[in-house]
Write a structure and sequence with these properties.
CATH class of the largest domain in chain B: Alpha Beta
Mean pLDDT of chain A: 88
Oligomer: heterodimer
Order of helices and strands of chain A: EEHEHEHE
Number of strands of chain B: 20
CATH topology of chain A: Transcription Regulator spoIIAA
Low-confidence stretches of chain B: 386-404, 524-539
CATH architecture of the largest domain in chain B: 4-Layer Sandwich
Shape of chain A: globular
Strand order of the largest sheet of chain A: 1-2-3-4-5
Radius of gyration of chain B: 36 Å
Largest interface: A-B, 16 and 23 residues
Strand content of chain A: 35-45%
Helix content of chain A: 25-40%
CATH class of chain A: Alpha Beta
Distance between the termini of chain B: 79 Å
Number of domains of chain A: 1
CATH superfamily of the largest domain in chain B: PPM-type phosphatase domain
Shape of chain B: elongated
Amino acid sequence: MAIVSTAQNNNKDVVITVSDRFDFSQYKVFRDSYCDCNLAGTEFRLDLSGANYMDSSALGMLLLLKEHADKIKGKIVIERPNDSINKILEIAQFHHLMEIVR
Amino acid sequence: MSSQDRHILIIDSNTDNLSRLERIISEEGFRVTATKDGMQGMVKFYQDRPDLVVIDYGDGPSRLDTCREIKALASETFVPIIIISPYLQEADINRCVEAGADDIVFRPFSTAIFRSKIHSLFRIAGIYSKLYTLTAERQNDEELAEGLFSEVVEKGNIAGEYIKIFKRSAETFSGDVQLTALCPNGDINVLLGDFTGHGLSSAIGAIPLSDTFRAMTDKGYTSIEIIKQINRKMFLLLPTHMFLALQMVTLSVAEGVAYIWNAGMEDVFIFDASNGELKERVSSFHPPLGITNYLIGDMKPRLVPLGQNDRIIMYSDGIVEARNRAGDFFGEDRLIDASRQGFTHGDVQGHIIAALEVFCEDLQQDDDISLVDINCDVSCYESLGAIKERDRDIRSFDSDRESATDFWAWQMSIGGDKLARVNPIPLIINQIQEIEGPSEHWHELFTVLTELYINALDHGVLGLSSELKDSPEGFALYFTEKEKRLRNIGSGYVKIKLEHYSCGNGGSLAITLIDSGSGFEFSPWIEQETVGDLSKNHFSGRGIKLVSDLCQSLSYRENGSVVEAVYQWSGEGQVN
């Protein structure tokens, strides 16, 4: 399974793990991984350590997750992107928009 | 389609089998054509265009040729073929499938199973035909859109001789947009945009993008104002997950510098084409546009002084992310190498595209490929712009002025924080256009007003010394200092007054600017002008020279805090 989400700490923390390719083909699964988490203040941690590819539509998917998090006054943290994914995040200057932890 | 409308062709050399099949199929309500001979079957297929074919394998492998021929005749329409046969070896089954059989029924078979296979194949054929229609419709839409797109979006591009644009789309309709336009003061704006995704949906923003870019460039808005507005438009228009990555270059013809923006794109390269040196690169310094309502932080363009051999290369990620069979990226290094070879042989695009094709062989590309190669020798662009060196035989309009039948006057004051945020010149040009109608002279007038206004603001209100601009580094420092002083502007102001007299088929505009500063050293510029041409290395003083070239008269009073200029024109092109 390329995308798995697990809730912790009384559903206050949601860890979404993306492996392999993070692109448009994951759109629905990715959306399903967070859309039912509506608890105010939820922190979404997106673990990218297992992902090796990301395209611009995946950046768009991050923006959708951010929109969802903002709506419920939560936050998102991008964790452990590999070098090539980090380069894409850097070109897109996404650190202005969300927290990225290497 | 009801059963009666469906037509089935049976090819079977055994008379008993043939009549049994014919009976089963007609009992289901289908129309039937039966033949014992393969060649005859093909003729029937060609004439009657049946919707399904049943072929008996009993006559041996030559029947598979019939199967193949029928599939070829059917071309893009899905006509299912059922093969009927006694027990077959695995290799024979494979051969049937390769020849195009969609199902195989072994003898002896139950009538119910045979019937159900026919029905299920018709169901699949229905889906195929729907898919075929949809694909054709989509293709038609995309072609239509692409036609519109190249008409509307990219038709207005300028200076193709010096700004070379290459584009190849991954699908018919591209998410990449390349635009060029001329500013009223002769500067050139070049934009390379990359919308998320491909196809029709990625292009919804393209027309508003090009409209905004062209209209605002035309009215003389600065690049930051244009980018802010594009961002706002894209924010309102695009859904959350879509955005516009963008590079924009303003080639300042008068200053010999480039202002470069990079929001979410690959690096912009600046090469010295004479030796292939990569002089500078401008990396992305802002997220793509359309994500947030306002630009983030203190976004400023990078300022790059230009030599006449310099070339700016802009490209979209499709080039560096193109892969070969081994899965490697084409990458930046290959792009830089190919550019250098291109400089040596005088064809940058050709070399880059050739290198890319050799690298990828015949693999299909996943992403749009865009490449823009800008010749930075600003003298190329001078003939395009409003700045034209010319001999002027100044003719006095004084006698005409007395007989002026109509005139108008207009003034505005702008002060405090508004000075930092609003550029009044486009507003003024709009006013003049409203009253006097469109004219090519407004480009020149725009230059005059901008120069006078910038001088009043920079040297008058803000008290900046133009000596700072003597070197390329100082130029950048100058703008940093300007930003700083604008933030603490206090009660400074600039007043602008225009008085216009129509004369014959032309007019005369008296311009007065008064600023709150304590005056500035203006005499060296005026004197320099009489001494001769300004040295090419001087980054300052060109503005005043330009204004005095374009105006009939120019004079400074009150230590420079009041300036008066008279701009004249006639209806037939230039004032001569």
